[in-house]
Amino acid sequence: MVKSKTFIKAFIVGAIEMNNRMGGEALYDWLWAIGERLGELEGGGIEGKRRGDLHYDPICPLKAQLETEHYFDIIPKEGDSYFMCPMSSGADKPACGDIVCVMHYAYRRRRGELAGKKVFHLMARSHLTEDPIFNEDAIKAAGKTKKDIEELVQESACIFAYR
C-alpha cells in the first residue's frame, strides 16, 4: 500500500537526483518550469493576504505540503547556500528560503503576469533556519525599502509586491 506522503517524498528525491545528476542550475530550471506551468493551469490571479500595497503569506503553502525541512540532512550543500537557492539575486528572482521558493515564485509570477501584474518577491523565510532572506534588488524595483516591509517580516513566510 502507498502511504500518503510517498508522492511528496518522490518529488523531493527527484529534486535531489536532478541536482546530483544535472546540477543546481538544471534543478532551478526544472522547478521554475513546474511553477510556471502550474500558474498557467491555475490562470491569472493575485495571491496572499494584503497589507497596504504589499502581499504576504503567513505560512508557506508549499512548505506545509512538502515538509522539505525534514530532508535537509540528505540535501547537499554548496558553500553557505543550499543547492535549490539561486546564488545570484535580481528583481526578477525569488527571495529564496527553500527549494519550494523557486517553484512558488514562478507560479505566483506567472499567475500575476496573466492578471496583468509584475510580481516582486521581497522576502522569504528560510525553512531551515527561520531567518528572513531579503531580495534587495526586488525591494528596490518595487519602490520599497527594508524598513517598509519590516512590520510584516515577523508574521510572514513570504512578502511580495504586485505592480
Word description of this protein:
- There is one protein chain.
- With 163 residues, the protein is an alpha+beta fold.
- The protein has one domain (6-162).
- 44% of the residues lie in helices and 16% in strands.
- The protein is built from six helices and seven strands.
- It has helices at residues 6-22, 24-42, 61-66, 99-114, 136-141, 146-153, and strands spanning 49-51, 54-57, 77-78, 81-82, 119-125, 132-134, 158-162.
- The strands form two sheets. The chain has a five-stranded antiparallel beta sheet with strand order 1-2-7-5-6, with helices on both faces.
- Strand 5 (119-125) and strand 6 form a beta hairpin.
- Helix 2 (24-42) runs parallel beside helix 4.
- It is globular.
- The model has no long low-confidence stretch (mean pLDDT 83).
Characteristics:
163 residues, 5-stranded antiparallel β-sheet, two-stranded antiparallel sheet, 7 strands
Number of contiguous helices: 6
Number of domains: 1
Poorly predicted segments? none
How are the strands of the biggest sheet laid out side by side? 1-2-7-5-6
Q: How are helices and strands ordered from N to C?
A: HHEEHEEHEEHHE
Rough shape?
A: globular
Which percent range describes the beta-strand content? 15-25%
Mean pLDDT: 83
What's the end-to-end separation, in Å? 47 Å
List the helices and strands and how they pair.
Layout: H1 6-22, H2 24-42, E1 49-51, E2 54-57, H3 61-66, E3 77-78, E4 81-82, H4 99-114, E5 119-125, E6 132-134, H5 136-141, H6 146-153, E7 158-162
Antiparallel strand pairs: 1-2, 2-7, 3-4, 5-6, 5-7
